[in-house]
Amino acid sequence: MKKNQDKKIKIVYLLPGGLYNSGGMERVTSIKANYLADAAGYDVSIVTTEQMGRPVFYPLSEKVTLYHLNIGIHENFGKENYMEKCISRFRKARQYRIEIEKLLLEIRPDITVTTLGLEIDFINKIKDGSVKIGELHFPGNFRSLMARKLSVGFIPNLVARIRTNNMQKQCRKLTRLIVLTEEEKTSWKNNQNVVVIANPLPVFPDKISSLEQKKAIAVGRLAHEKGFDLLIDAWKAVAEKHPDWSLDIVGGGNQKEILLQKITDNGLDEMVKIREATDNIYDYYQNHSMLIFPSRYLESFGMVQIEAMSCGLPVVAFNAPCGPKDIISDGMNGFLVKTGDTEGLSEKILTLIESDDLRQTMGKAARKTSENYRVEKVMQLWERTFGELPIQNSKFKI
Question: What are 14's strand-pairing partners?
């Protein structure tokens, strides 16, 4: 994109939640914002709803402008009464719409990027002159998946389906919808606005693992969908054959105590440890010999897979929708296991433990795969996509 020298193109990211935790969407948004502001010369802003005075977790360029609305939409999650949740959500959503519309009319961005939070219900109706594009960081039917997996009852399931249908309807009205994998794109086959752009690596490390440490690692939010409880079940069989191997689970979340109890119940206190989330996860990868990715669902793209692979780690993953099989070539740079199959997960972990040569071969292939996700390569695709947008401001020449 050829940018006018007198004025930078303005991009606003609408990020549901905040930049205070170690989540994948937060990390990727920070990486892209930093690149666009520092390397590509864009005027970049990020709008959050849940920061509430907490510090930003990932490093962010001083050139990126932050707007923290502090609405507290996520406070709904703690409410037990479903009707109370609905009423609160309606009020918060109305407040969010008012504040977003006011802010966009003030900033007058050229491009507004929705990450498909509550704003997808109204973003197409805001007449601020910006081109609206969306980033889908989860399967398009994630609300229905979550409701079904959690068995929350008829009415919540119905509401989830209605909200999913509305989100998909609104996504079709966006100028572009960016999805992370070819697998996810197939579920939008009637949409002409869908483009596949994977998430970028934050860095491409020089140092890689020797794969000689008798340690495996799993990384992510300690939540039901991440499947760490299934991994603990699978590790019991691993520990029986190879008690000299250990497992580190790195992350924070509301299931920590549940997982710690499960570790104890399985007699794995000496072999399985939960480590605090870190902003320098590469130190962990470089001192482990494989990554295990046991997510049940809600995975559009496993950033931790690419990060670990860049450090030369082979990956054993559940083939959950919709990301692992876009990254992992089964038997080449890792293994794919049927989602929820803890015996199969144990078997593939044991295969890597018991073959040093296979571990090394897969690790080299994993490292090579990860080169496709260098930030420079991925951001070239973003700039090309921005260059194709019908930006209204006549000062910008595409």
Answer: 47, 114
CB 145 within 8 A of CB 161: no
Q: What are the start-end ranges of the H helices in the chain? A: 24-38, 82-107, 142-150, 154-171, 182-186, 228-241, 256-265, 282-285, 303-310, 324-327, 342-353, 356-370, 375-387
Residue 145: what pLDDT? Answer: 53
Interval 196-251: pLDDT, tens: 999 999 889 999 999 999 999 999 989 988 999 999 999 999 999 999 999 999 99
d(CA 86, CA 20) in angstroms, rounded, equals: 26
Residue 15 backbone phi and psi in degrees, to 5: -115, 105
Per-residue pLDDT at 322 exceeds 80:
no
Distance between CA 321 and CA 394 in Å, rounded?
A: 41
Does 263 or 148 have the greater pLDDT score?
Answer: 263
What pLDDT, on the 0 to 100 scale, is given for residue 80? 61
Residue 113 β-bridge partners: 13, 133
Show Cβ contacts of residue 44 under 8 Å, excluding neighbours closer than 6 positions.
11, 12, 13, 33, 36, 37, 63, 64, 65
* Residue 396 pLDDT > 50: no
Output the CA–CA distances (angstroms, integers) from residue 266 to 223, 271, 332, in the order listed: 19, 11, 32
CB 303 within 8 Å of CB 180:
no
Q: Above 70 in pLDDT, residue 369?
A: yes
Residue pair 361/333 in contact (Cβ under 8 Å)? The answer is: no
Residue 243 burial by Cβ neighbours in a 10 Å radius (0-12, 13-18, 19+):
exposed
Residue length, the chain?
Answer: 398
The pLDDT confidence band at residue 192, using thresholds 50, 70 and 90, is confident
Residue 249: the pLDDT is: 98
Contact indicator for 273, 302 with CB cutoff of 8 Å: no
Its pTM stands at 0.82
140: tokens are: 């398009």
Report the alpha-carbon distance of residue 49 to residue 76 in Å, rounded: 13
Asked whether the beta carbons of 196 and 182 are under 8 A apart, the reply is yes
- Spatial CB neighbours of 127, under 8 Å, sequence gap ≥ 6: none
